[in-house]
Sequence to fold (328 residues):
Amino acid sequence: MQPFVDVKNLRKLFGNFTAVDGVSFSIGKGEIFGILGPNGAGKTTTISTILGIEKQTDGKIVVDGLDNLKHPKEVKQIIGFMAQETIVDSELTGRQNLALGADLYHIPKSEIPSKVSFALRESQLEKFADVKASNYSGGMKRRLYLVKSMLHEPKLLILDEPTTGLDIQNRVQMWKDIRKLKADGVTIILTTQYLEEADALCDNIAIIDHGKIIAQGTPSQLKKMIASGNVLEIITKPENVEQVRKMLKAKFGLNSTAVNDKIEATVEKSPLDTFQRILNALKSSKAPVLSVSLRLPTLDDVFIKLTGASLRDAEQKADASQSNKAVR
Ligand SMILES: Nc1ncnc2c1ncn2[C@@H]1O[C@H](COP(=O)(O)OP(=O)(O)O)[C@@H](O)[C@H]1O
Ligand SMILES: [Mg+2]
Fold:
């Protein structure tokens, strides 16, 4: 079966800077596809080319059988888009925002009231329909923006970091809304910096770093890439890190990584039994142990394995380098 979205060898240069460097993926109809990566990885640029906001330097994009360069208008009509920054007019009420949106999507005038009412119901904003959006909470504005992006009933919805900056409660609500849209048959692309989010929502994920896909697969395939086993995590004092790592290697043949005071190793064989023996070995060693745990691998482990840095660390570095740039 032909994929619903097919992206091949996508490249985007800004001047001589390569923001997207040979990205390929395909998405089946009705799937949620996640583009996971730190700040500056090239997520927004990738989706901007699919949307036609930016023109690709190279590569092919086909949405629902339509080439984006040959049929830009048709491709746009198929897509609903929610940008990272919430775009609603604070001076207008929820209802007015939606009516304006519907007009911009060229929805026939006679259909606008029913579409707007439906959107207000879906977003549970009926009670606040005639209140100015300036009085809405961040989460309410986000929900209004989401249903606004869906007014023209697009087959493909693109969400750029839909939950960045939302508190937990609103994030959970957004996840529910996204799952409901999937259940209604909408194909969804979402970008995220959150491993948990990609893991929880996506059928397939591309992990992107410096404009390149460094791994691609289902959440469980990606987790299996790092190991079939469990992840052992030991937190000790920084001065004891090397001692503990040597012990893990000598007694258990385990290769470990260390970030500050946190040591990690993958335990492949009979993890519970090995865990027990490691606990005993730690007890007999003099190293002070602040915490020991054994867990299933997460997407963060995949990222560490592939890039040598945790996704969180990579983000901080990107933030730091951007603020350095601003200072210079
Ligand atoms: N219009 C632009 N001009 C120049 N550089 C850009 C432009 N847009 C993005 N970039 C750069 O391209 C890289 C990828 O950016 P972006 O796609 O926004 O990353 P992400 O969405 O993953 O945070 C960054 O280094 C960013 O500074
Ligand atoms: Mg972005």
About this structure: The two ends are 52 Å apart (CA to CA).
